[in-house]
Amino acid sequence: MSDVVLSVEQIDVYYGASKILFGVDLTVQRGRTLALLGRNGAGKSTTMKAICGIAPPRRGRVAVHGKDVAGRAPHVIARHGVGYVPEDRQVFPLHTVEENLTIAAKPGMDGARGWTPERVWESFPLLAELKTRRAGLLSGGEQQLLTIARTLMGNPDVLLLDEPSEGLAPIIVQEIGRLIRALRETGVTIVLAEQNMHFCLGLAEDAAVIDKGHIVYANTIEALRADPEVTSRYLAI
Ligand SMILES: Nc1ncnc2c1ncn2[C@@H]1O[C@H](COP(=O)(O)OP(=O)(O)O)[C@@H](O)[C@H]1O
Ligand SMILES: [Mg+2]
Q1: Of 62, 139, 179, 225, whose CB has the highest number of CB atoms within 10 Å?
Q2: pLDDT tens string 24-43
Q3: What is the CATH number of the domain that holds 123?
Q4: pLDDT tens digits, residue range 171-193?
Q5: Residue 110 gets which letter from DSSP?
């Protein structure tokens, strides 16, 4: 039997009077990684923001472990096990790397405190070397790693990563890819928004393609890769 951690059903999202998402559906199974792919402006970030409560849907359902959380405040949705890593890296610039982690520490849904600073140092060797550095002094890539690590300190069941590789040096992109693979081994469920399908191959099992606020494709990522009609029509490749 499938075990759905996150289910988005027929959500419509508006910014003011502009309708941005049109009946978006997504299903994310426990322990799997879903790549949410689409061109710039397609609606990937808006979908993420709708799930985590920053852009509440005007219609539809966002169910986490079967419980509808659509329209609830972001901190409430976070408490239901949703960890969101926004595309603009959010760290406390005047606090050290280690303080950024301890500030974010929260037990997970089941009370688990699986993520500790020690575990972060093991999983993020680059951050371990920067423990005492103020976060505002980190490079963009280091801040991205710290933003992911901070979110993990809240022990989420489902992690939303919004274009984590965007604009970063190849070495950091590799590090992020390695990290996502390592996270998958721990059983965390991931939604990975990306423009670049190639970055997601080997990271994600499933793929959904969004275009102009509509989901236009949903299948395994291998099926998507083998479908040049869809990739050339909807993705920048
Ligand atoms: N705060 C906002 N106000 C109005 N329109 C927005 C806002 N944020 C995004 N949009 C519009 O919503 C659409 C989807 O944007 P977004 O979800 O950021 O796409 P993506 O993440 O796929 O690049 C775009 O047309 C964008 O211009
Ligand atoms: Mg975006």
Answers
A1: 62
A2: 999 999 999 999 999 999 99
A3: 3.40.50.300
A4: 889 999 999 999 988 889 999 99
A5: T
